[in-house]
Structure formats: structure tokens, C-alpha cells
Specification:
alpha+beta, 4-stranded antiparallel β-sheet
Length: 390
Amino acid sequence: MKYCPACSAKVIPGARFCPSCGGALQAATPAPGAAAQRLGVSAVAPAPEKKKKSNLLVILVGVVVVIGAIGAVSGGGSAGGKSAVSAAPPASEQNLTLLTKAGEAVAQKDMKLASELFGKIAPVTSGERQQAYADLEAAVIDHAIGEATGASTAFRQINALGKSFESQRPQIQKSAAIVAKYETAINAVLKPLPASEVETSLAGYRLLAKVTSDKPAYVTKVAEYTQKKIDGRSTRVAEILKGYRVETDKFNNLSFYTHASSPRFTNSRSTVYLYIAVNKDTAWLRMKTTYASDDWLFVDEVQAFADGETSQLTSGDFERDNTSTIWEWMDEKPSDSQIATLQKLAGAKDATLRYVGNTYRDDITLGGADKKAILDVLETFAKLQAALSD
């Protein structure tokens, strides 16, 4: 019986290659890693600084060596007694080069480049080469998951896992084993979270539903945490608007919130103020400029004077009404420039409104309570927008 000089396995007399290790039987057995060395790849991983990186490099270099050796042996020998270990065919060389570069990219934590290189690899037919490719792909995925779950907070970990998944989504969803890895990693982040972490939990279960192609259990969790988020948002909005007067238009599902210092009625006095309109998850500012007197002025413009600086606050067609007194008003959505003018008025020591009519004009000093109300509403509106955008 003949034995392989490389691995000592039994071989059939006359065979040119060992059925166990693939080594050549009619020529000198190549030294370990010879195929990899021809392409400048070391068969022994260098000793990197960090243990985690060292493990990854060992896997990558090992895979590259296996593929290189397979490629070298698959070239076969030629007549005339030449060595059976000959140059690998172009496709094998290309695969080996691409896999080597992909391994280097992973070691440098450049997962985008590694993913691009995977996509360029020629079809793999050899069972050993398929396994080598799968091992390298698994190393890439494990590395990506490890990087993601090393983030400082659970929310960042979920975001990182989501980005990693999306970067290679088509390949990942073809492999049940890789899908299971992502599912396990995401659940490991979610499991210790307290009930108050609604936002992170919702993001995590949304990602799990995407990764597992809408597994029913995760779809149910998404609905549950979505409702929790809505309920929590309603509570925050109510707290932010606490102390404001509210009027509701149930036909249009609108609510209007007015500062306690602002006029309750349009004909109360001459001033300008902001109020907030809310429709479900949307909020916007409104500005109301009022003029109240004993006689008509027929206002068509209002100017603002703030510590010596004059600018136009508003102009256009004012609405009018009267009983024993008269009142005129403009109710509009303020522009950025109008809001800037209101901020100047609110911060000025001398803040005056000039109501310009078709014949006469009237100057009104903006009081301290009205100036404070403008600033309060702007601050409240900023908090409200932040709460509604969560």
C-alpha cells in the first residue's frame, strides 16, 4: 500500500494526487503556504497589537492559504514529468487575490471595501473553495457585528447593526446562518433594556423585523412599542403645553394654545402675540396683531420700533368688527423675518408698535408681559417640535 508523504493517508497506486490532502504524489510536496507565498501572502499571521484583531487575521490568512493551495493543485501537472504543483488558472488567481485584498480590508476595518471585493469574486465551484469563501464571509460578518455591539450606548449599537446589515443586505438574507447571527446580536442588545427605553426598543424591533423578513413576533413588538411611543409623546406634549389656554376645533382636529398673558379676546387691547396650532403630530406658530379703539383707523400696516431700529412687522388686509368699540386684526403664519422682528421687540427696552391707517396712525408701547409671552411661546414651540419629531 502506498502512503501520502504529506499526510500519511492511504493512496491508490499510480495516483498523482492524495485524495485526503490533495498533495502531489509524483513530485515534491510543496511547503505549507507555498501558493500564498507566490502572491506575497504570509502563511503565518503577524502578531498584531490587539487580541481581537489577531483572531480575525488568523482566520483571514488561513482562508487565503487554503484557497491558494487549492488553486495551485487544481492547475494539475503536465506531461514530461514536470511538478504537479503549477501556476493556478487565471480565475483561481483572481479569486485568491480578491479574497486576500478583502481580508486586508477587513483587518483595516474597511467593511465597505471588503463588501465590494466580495462582489467581484468569480463563481466558486470547488467545495473546498466554497467553504473557504464562507469562512471569510463569516469573519467579515463577525467582525462587523463585534464592531457594532462595541458602541457606547444601546441606541448606537442598534444603529451600527442596522448600517452593517444594510451594507450587505442581499448577501446576508441569502444565508440563514448569518441572519441568525444578526438576530442574536440585536436581541442581546434589547434584552437588558428597561421598559422606559421605548425609542431604542422600537428601533431594535424594527431592525429585527427587517432582518428576519417580518417574523410575526417582531412585527407585533413593533406595533406595541409604536403605541408606547405615541402614548409617551402625548404625555410629553401635555407637559410642555401645561398652563396654556386651549381652544379646540374638533371638525378639523385642531387645537390652539395661547399664552396665559396674551389677550383672551381680539377686542381686548392693541398688541401682537404668538400662539401655537397643533394637528396630530404637527405644530406651527401663528401671529395675531390686534388694534382696539373707540374709532376706526383702517389699519393696513404695522411697524415695529425696537431700541431705535425700525422695521415692518406686517401689512395687508386687516379684518374688522365693532360693537360699542371697534377692533381690527391680522391673523397669519409668521415668516422667519417676522419672528426675528418679534424677538427684537421682546428683547428691547423701548418696544413700540405703530399702527398705520389710511389717514392716521397710532403708537402703542409693547408691555413687559407681552414681551415675555413672545419669548415663552418661542421656547415652548421649540420644545414641542423636538417632542413631536421623536
